[in-house]
Specification:
With about 240 residues, the chain is an alpha/beta fold. About 30% of the residues lie in helices and about 30% in strands. Strand 9 and strand 10 form a beta hairpin.
């Protein structure tokens, strides 16, 4: 799956320092990383290790203090705010721990919010079918379980046909049985659409479904492990 000639992200010596009053917080301390087309990686590490900061910089939600990050050869560290906005809009799908659905809109309408501004979207119906929610199109968030709401959030993220899907604790608010269903949806998207996918999790067992596991500690990438074969989400225990 990994093709040296098909790098989606290249990260070199990436640092991020936050100023908290008189204190400097070093969230990233020289991270180096590549992410390839069609690859699924899992980012592991304790709270404060830099996982979310790295993901937010890759997604154009935050900017680095120093270092270099490129997307398909385009230097994101020197991109203007308008360029970053277009990058987020057209190339990246985001899934967070909390679903951020609009309560007054149905599942179909929540997804359509994105498809109406995307360049080459799939239909809301097709996106919801991919995550197994064809029978919930006209349900409002309050009528859906937590796992169903998270799958609507995934459908919304993938409906723009993004090249990259960035997921920050997507199963963090779910029980294990529901979480497995959500992981199956993410795995299907990665496999069928070829979307480069990065998943932050505290759950070590989820690493079994990844091509590579990126371990972070104290703002640095401390280890990169490769899985010779990926586990099915159904085989994950937690």
């Amino acid at each position: 799956m990994i093709n040296e000639n098909n790098i989606v992200f290249q990260v070199r010596n990436l640092t991020k320092v936050y100023q908290m009053g008189d204190v400097e917080v070093h969230a990233l301390r020289g991270a180096d990383l590549e992410l390839y087309t069609g690859e699924l990686i899992v980012l592991l590490g304790p709270s404060g290790s830099g996982k979310s900061t790295l993901l937010n910089i890759l997604g154009g939600l935050d900017t680095a203090t120093s270092g270099f990050v490129s997307y398909r050869g385009k230097d994101l560290t020197r991109a203007s705010e308008q360029e970053l906005t277009e990058y987020r809009r057209f190339h990246v799908g985001f899934v967070f721990q909390f679903y951020n659905l609009i309560p007054s809109l149905t599942a179909r309408e929540n997804v359509a919010v994105v498809t109406e501004i995307a360049r080459n979207p799939m239909s809301p119906e097709a996106a919801l079918a991919m995550v197994g929610l064809s029978d919930r199109l006209d349900h409002f968030p309050a009528q859906l379980s937590g796992g169903e709401q998270q799958r609507v959030a995934i459908a919304r993220a993938i409906s723009k046909n993004p090249e990259v899907l960035l997921c920050d604790e997507p199963t963090g608010a779910l029980d294990s049985q529901t979480g497995i269903v959500v992981l199956e949806a993410l795995e299907r998207v990665n496999r069928e659409l070829g979307t480069a996918t990065a998943i932050i999790t505290h759950n070590v067992d989820i690493a079994g479904m990844a091509d590579r596991i990126i371990h972070l500690s104290n703002g640095r990438i401390s280890e990169v492990a490769v899985n010779n074969s990926r586990k099915s989400p159904r085989d994950i225990q937690w």
